[in-house]
């Protein structure tokens, strides 16, 4: 892999998972990185997050201490029918390292954020909070905070999420994240509560990712922190819980039990064990036409340019891939603008495909019972292009999980393989 031929002063706006990962990747390649964020303190909220091989390989390489981090691993992906609890298909993940070259971890989002922050500090990244950016000068380039502080750099990276203020300024187009019509309930249950019930205990003792698929909703569950907690993400049709102004609201046990009262017994039991939780409006954006400003000094990364719905568990992974490819492009013997354009030309097709597939899976996993659902269940068992789950087909799973975003010459070949598979599928 190429090493940086120059040391740039880089400013990253946003200290989420993507911002921290890019700061760590670039600092360890010889650049001087400053990350600023509006948060009063660095404490990542949320619940569980899946770390597939295409991202775990990068974190390990960049010095994130995944060994020390409390985690579980997924030995399979188990799709289940919502009402009778029957298996649709089990996709084995027990050979994940041998097949894809890196582990598939199940972790708490806060633990992953802390691990990245610790590694960034250790590498020498400057990370500053209470710095809310209100304007940019893309030609300088610089960012100005609401306190009037100006941060100048050779390169500015907008990693400020789906509500990015950098994005519409960079694209020249006003944009509003589009409401997908779904909300996500993010729930954590102490593992000991599941272990006390013989019907639920295997969800902890036989760690895997379980997905119950039903009309207008699906539930994804998996253990985290060595089984200390069981994480559940419910993606379901919104009942107008959120608004354009308020994206996150509190949910309660009563409404959850009522909504899923006719689902299979294990789901009902999990709902009964649930306390209060948060519900998040699920939004995304149309595919962007550009990630790099004409000045050649500003670029977008992660959710600021390709926000992902959670249906493929690739949101953070694709942001980490952005960071890896940007790192390698900046190490090439190219001027800055050419390097950034190369980063965009490599990453935008891949990230856009994953983004589109996450939107398709919103429909695939929520099909009403009937003939279409029966066909879906049958084709989900096929190791073929007809499988509606994107990574349910070996070739597409290899394209997604085996990818190393720091090996630039492989990106094009992988993209061609995926394109051929997609054309055959349609």
From TrEMBL:
Tell me the protein's name. Answer: FAD-binding domain-containing protein
- Tell me the domain of life: Eukaryota
Gene Ontology MF, one? monooxygenase activity
Classification via InterPro entries: FAD-bd, FAD-dep_Monooxygenase_BioMet, FAD/NAD-bd_sf
PANTHER family, sorted: MONOOXYGENASE (PTHR13789), PUTATIVE (AFU_ORTHOLOGUE AFUA_2G01950)-RELATED (PTHR13789:SF147)
Pfam families attached to this UniProt entry: FAD_binding_3
Q: Which family does it belong to?
A: Belongs to the paxM FAD-dependent monooxygenase family.
Does this entry carry the keyword Signal? yes
Alphabetically list the UniProt keywords: FAD, Flavoprotein, Monooxygenase, Oxidoreductase, Signal
């Amino acid at each position: 892999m190429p090493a940086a031929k120059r040391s740039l002063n880089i400013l990253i706006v946003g200290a989420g998972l993507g911002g921290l990962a890019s700061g760590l990747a670039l600092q360890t390649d010889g650049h001087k990185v400053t990350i600023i964020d509006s948060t009063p303190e660095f404490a990542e909220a949320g619940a569980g997050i899946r770390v597939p091989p295409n991202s775990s390989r990068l974190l390990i390489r960049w010095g994130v201490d995944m060994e020390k981090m409390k985690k579980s691993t997924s030995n399979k992906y188990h799709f289940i029918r919502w009402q009778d609890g029957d298996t649709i298909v089990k996709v084995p993940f027990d050979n994940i390292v041998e097949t894809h070259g890196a582990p598939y971890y199940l972790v708490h989002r806060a633990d992953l954020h802390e691990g990245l922050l610790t590694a960034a500090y250790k590498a020498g990244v400057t990370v500053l909070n209470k710095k809310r950016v209100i304007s940019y000068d893309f030609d300088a380039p610089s960012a100005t905070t609401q306190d009037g502080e100006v941060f100048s750099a050779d390169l500015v990276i907008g990693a400020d999420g789906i509500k990015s203020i950098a994005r519409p300024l960079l694209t020249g187009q006003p944009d509003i994240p589009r409401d997908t019509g779904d909300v996500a309930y993010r729930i954590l249950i102490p593992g000991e509560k599941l272990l006390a019930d013989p019907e639920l205990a295997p969800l902890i003792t036989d760690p895997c990712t379980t997905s119950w698929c039903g009309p207008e909703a699906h539930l994804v569950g998996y253990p985290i922190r060595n089984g200390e907690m069981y994480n559940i993400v419910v993606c379901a049709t919104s009942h107008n819980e959120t608004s354009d102004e308020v994206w996150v609201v509190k949910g309660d046990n009563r409404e959850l039990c009522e909504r899923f009262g006719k689902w299979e017994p294990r789901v009902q039991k999990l709902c009964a064990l649930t306390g209060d939780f948060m519900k998040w409006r699920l939004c995304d954006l149309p595919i962007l036409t550009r990630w790099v400003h004409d000045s050649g000094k500003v670029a977008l990364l992660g959710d600021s340019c390709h926000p992902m719905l959670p249906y493929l568990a690739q949101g953070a992974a694709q942001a980490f891939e952005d960071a890896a490819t940007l790192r390698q492009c900046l190490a090439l013997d190219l001027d800055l603008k050419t390097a950034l354009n190369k980063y965009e030309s490599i990453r935008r097709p891949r990230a856009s495909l994953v983004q589109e597939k996450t939107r398709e899976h919103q429909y695939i996993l929520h099909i009403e019972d009937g003939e279409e659902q029966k066909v879906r269940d049958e084709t989900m068992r096929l190791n073929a292009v007809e499988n509606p789950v994107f990574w349910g087909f070996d070739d597409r799973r290899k394209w997604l999980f085996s990818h190393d975003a720091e090996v630039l010459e492989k990106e094009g070949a992988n993209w061609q393989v995926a394109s051929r598979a997609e054309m055959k599928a349609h």
